[in-house]
Design brief:
single chain, 125 residues, mainly alpha, 3 helices
C-alpha cells in the first residue's frame, strides 16, 4: 500500500466520522434549539432540521470529492500526516464556523421575530 492510498483511507475514515456521527448528533440535539427558535411554528422544525442535515451532508460530500481529486502523490510518512491533518482540519474548522453562523442567523431571526411580535402587541393595545 502506498502512502497516497493510506492517506485516502485515513482521510475517508476521519470524514466518515465527521459526516456520519457528528452530523447525526447535530441533527438530534439541534431539534431542541429549533423548537425554541420557532415556538409558534413547530410544524417547521422537522423540515428545517432535515434541510440543515441534508445541506451538511451535501457540503461535506462535495468537499471530499473536490479534496480527493486534487491530491498529489504522497511519498513519506510526515507528508502523509501533514496532508491528512491539513485537509481534515480545514473542513472541520469551516464546519465549526458554519455551525456558529447558522446559530447566529437563527438567533437573529428569533430576535427580529420577537421584536415585531412585541411591536404588534403594543399596537393592538
Amino acid at each position: 500500500m502506498t502512502f497516497t492510498s493510506i492517506g485516502y483511507l485515513s482521510f475517508l475514515i476521519i470524514m466518515f466520522y465527521v459526516i456520519g456521527v457528528i452530523g447525526w448528533q447535530f441533527y438530534k440535539d439541534g431539534k431542541f434549539y429549533l423548537e425554541r427558535f420557532f415556538e409558534e411554528e413547530l410544524h417547521l422544525v422537522d423540515s428545517i432540521n432535515k434541510l440543515l442535515l441534508l445541506g451538511y451532508y451535501l457540503f461535506n460530500l462535495g468537499y471530499i470529492a473536490l479534496t480527493i481529486t486534487g491530491w498529489s502523490n504522497i511519498y513519506s510518512f510526515p507528508e502523509l500526516v501533514d496532508v491528512v491533518a491539513w485537509r481534515s482540519g480545514k473542513i472541520i474548522i469551516t464546519l465549526g464556523l458554519m455551525h456558529y453562523a447558522n446559530l447566529w442567523w437563527l438567533s437573529h431571526f428569533h430576535e427580529i421575530k420577537s421584536f415585531f411580535k412585541l411591536k404588534s402587541n403594543k399596537q393592538k393595545q
